[in-house]
Amino acid sequence: MTVNIKNKEDIKKMRIAGKLASQVLDYISNFVAPNITTEELDKLCHEYMVNVQETIPAPLNYAPPGHTPFPKSICTSVNNQICHGIPGEKILKKGDIVNIDITVIKDGYHGDTSRMFFVGAPSIQAKRLCEITYESMWLGIKQVKPGNFLGDIGFTIQNHAEKNGFSVVREFCGHGIGKVFHEDPQILHYGSPGKGLKLEAGMIFTIEPMINAGKKDIKILPDGWTVVTKDRSLSAQWEHTILVTEKSYEVMTLSAGTPSPF
Ligand code: MF3
Ligand code: CO
Ligand code: CO
User: Which ligand is nearest to the CA of 172?
Assistant: First the structure.
């Protein structure tokens, strides 16, 4: 495994790409409401990225080995969908929860971030799942500093989720990111303190826990992309792109609408 250490120039450009990705979420947040379809959300984001920001939507036609090209510009994962939901004719309704995951490319660099949105008022369980997942992401982020280990991040996330009666998805994880969308290292959202790779200043990776209300098991839909909970329970996810700094961390995916840290 080779982990790419970013230089000053890389970091500057990642900050820009990260902010732009987060600004797409700020923009689309105004449109998430009952009766809109996920493909309408995709179209709005696509136009905003391409025409306003002059960024490239990284998901569009993204085709890692063993996958058909992803057909849309964003991922929209609703209720029991864990991640990689393909925008389509699904009409959002009151009480739904939806993760919108944005990855833009600007000047050759990727910014990757996602948030949960409520469509109308959520159930008590849905609200709690989204909150605990948000807290889990942040507790993971706060473990980031040189000399700490990837296992410290994973353990902290897993501990918070499980303590609250939820489960952590194992098949998908955070990832190194830069000029490449998904690169080493893999950031597991479970693990043991002191285990795994030691963090060094200049690493950039995402932290993006997927937390299920029920069991951790997943299924992939016949579209080849959409990941859902096997037991049909609700799932939530939040994502930031993080730089390891000399003393701690910097969140690269910040904008005016970024929810405050937990
Ligand atoms: N943005 C997702 C991530 O956080 C990856 C989406 S790949 C796609 O890593 F092809 F499904 F869009
Ligand atoms: Co990611
Ligand atoms: Co993402």
Answer: 1
Which DSSP helix (H) or strand (E) runs through 219? strand 218-220
CATH of the domain at 56: 3.90.230.10
Residue having the nearest C-alpha atom to atom 7 of ligand 1 = 59
pLDDT for 104-153, tens place per residue?
999 999 999 999 999 999 999 999 999 999 999 999 999 999 999 999 99
% helix / strand / coil in the chain, to the nearest 5? 25, 25, 45
Q: Is 1 contained in some domain?
A: no
Does 2 reside within a domain? no
Tokens of 102: 């944005």
**pTM (2 decimals)?**
0.98
pLDDT tens across 143-154, in order?
Answer: 999 999 999 999
262 inside domain: no
Residue 158 is inside which H or E element, if any? Answer: helix 150-163
pLDDT digits over 197-215, tens only?
999 999 999 999 999 999 9
Ligand 1 first shell, C-beta below 6 A: 59, 62, 70, 75, 84, 101, 103, 112, 206, 208, 225, 239
Mutate to test the pocket of ligand 1, among 42, 83, 221 (most ligand atoms within 8 A of CB): 83
Query: Domain range for residue 48?
Result: 8-251
What is the total count of domains within the chain? 1
Residue 61 lies in a domain: yes
Q: Which of 175, 4, 179, 51 is nearest to 108 (CA)?
A: 179
